[in-house]
Structures are given as structure tokens and as C-alpha cells.
């Protein structure tokens, strides 16, 4: 003699079945959407050039090629779909990311872990409240009149006693090429060292 299951057991079983069905379906479509958005098989001009390294024929390094693409882009922004990367030189985008909606662009756990040994839990390697607290501290510290005055004196002295002498010297040698990018990079590095420690590193 067969015993029919009570109604509440049937309802419970149906509910569990529907719950697992929707959970599995939702997870599956989420994963599908994630991979579709990654465009791992994208064959646009930029991705194709990246995959085949055809850019090597015209440019010495990746940065030069990216700079060329950014110059050509009307929005000053390019996408490397297969890497999931977006590169921008548009000031409005940069302001949006680092000021207006900064919270939308966390560095993330991967970035923090990779640079953890070098940057620790400092302002350049944290997100959220920890970042906000350190930013306020840095702003108070670096915005003071005494620090700005100190930096102004050091930068002025560096310009007067070193940078202008170097440029004068280069101007007297018309046949020699002066790498201004290298000069300004060294100038910035020297100033940062002197403002922080009072010393300039000499290699
Ligand atoms: Zn692409």
C-alpha cells in the first residue's frame, strides 16, 4: 500500500528544486557574461596588432605604440580587450578616476599583495577608510606653509645653481643632443630626495 507524501513535503521539495535551479542558472549566466565581457577572442585592430606583435615593426617599445594610439584616439582612451586593460590620457577621465569617483577604482587585493613588500600599508597601496585617513594626514602635512616654503627654497636653489647651468652649458654645444626627459627626471628625483632627506643621491 502506497503512502502519499504530505503536501508540505511536496511544497518544500519544489521550493528547494526551484532555489537550486535559479542559483545554478544565475551563476552560469554570470560566468558567461564575465567571459563575454573580457573579449578574450577580440580581433579588433589593436588586439590583433598586440597578439601578432605587428606593432614591433614601427615602434621600439610598447609605451611608444600606446602613445601613438592615444594620440589617434578621439577620446584619448584605448582598450586592450584581450588583456582587459583600459589606457587613458584624457584629463577628464583621470580626474574622474583619481578625484570625482575615486572609490569606484580601488587598487584591489592583487595589486596590494604584489606591492605589499615594497609599499606596506602606505597610502599608495591601500583603499577605503585607511586610504582616506592617510590622505587627510598627508594633505595636512604637505599643505602647511612651512613645508611649501621649504620645498620652494629647495626647488629654486636647484633651478638656479644646477638646472640653468646645465642648460646654459648645453646651449653652448649646438652639435650635441641634450635628453630633456632625462634631465627633468633627474631634476625631479633630486628635488624629492633633498626635500625628504636634505641630501641628493650621487650615482
Ligand atoms: Zn579588441
TrEMBL record:
Domain of life according to the entry: Eukaryota
Keywords of this entry: Iron, Membrane, Metal-binding, Oxidoreductase, Transmembrane, Transmembrane helix
InterPro entries: Cyt_P450, Cyt_P450_sf
Gene3D superfamilies: Cytochrome P450 (1.10.630.10)
A GO molecular function held by the record: monooxygenase activity
TM region positions: 15-36
One Pfam match: p450
PANTHER family attached to this UniProt entry: CYTOCHROME P450
Family: Belongs to the cytochrome P450 family.
Protein name: Cytochrome P450 94C1
Amino acid at each position: 500500500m502506497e503512502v502519499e507524501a504530505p503536501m508540505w513535503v511536496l511544497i518544500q521539495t519544489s521550493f528547494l528544486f526551484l532555489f537550486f535551479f535559479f542559483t545554478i542558472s544565475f551563476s552560469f549566466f554570470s560566468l558567461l557574461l564575465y567571459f563575454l565581457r573580457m573579449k578574450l577572442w577580440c580581433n579588433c585592430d589593436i588586439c590583433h596588432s598586440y597578439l601578432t606583435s605587428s606593432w614591433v615593426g614601427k615602434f621600439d617599445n610598447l609605451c611608444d605604440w600606446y602613445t601613438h594610439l592615444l594620440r589617434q584616439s578621439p577620446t584619448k582612451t584605448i582598450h586592450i580587450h584581450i588583456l582587459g586593460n583600459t589606457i587613458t590620457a584624457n584629463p577628464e577621465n583621470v580626474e574622474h578616476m583619481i578625484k570625482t569617483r575615486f572609490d569606484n577604482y580601488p587598487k584591489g587585493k592583487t595589486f596590494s599583495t604584489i606591492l605589499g613588500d615594497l609599499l606596506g600599508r602606505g597610502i599608495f597601496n591601500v583603499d577605503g577608510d585607511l586610504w582616506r585617513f592617510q590622505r587627510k594626514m598627508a594633505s595636512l602635512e604637505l599643505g602647511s606653509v612651512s613645508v611649501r616654503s621649504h620645498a620652494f627654497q629647495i626647488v629654486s636653489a636647484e633651478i638656479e645653481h644646477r638646472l640653468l647651468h646645465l642648460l646654459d652649458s648645453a646651449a653652448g654645444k649646438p652639435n650635441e643632443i641634450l635628453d630633456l626627459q632625462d634631465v627633468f627626471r633627474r631634476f625631479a628625483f633630486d628635488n624629492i630626495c633633498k626635500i625628504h632627506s636634505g641630501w641628493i643621491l650621487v650615482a
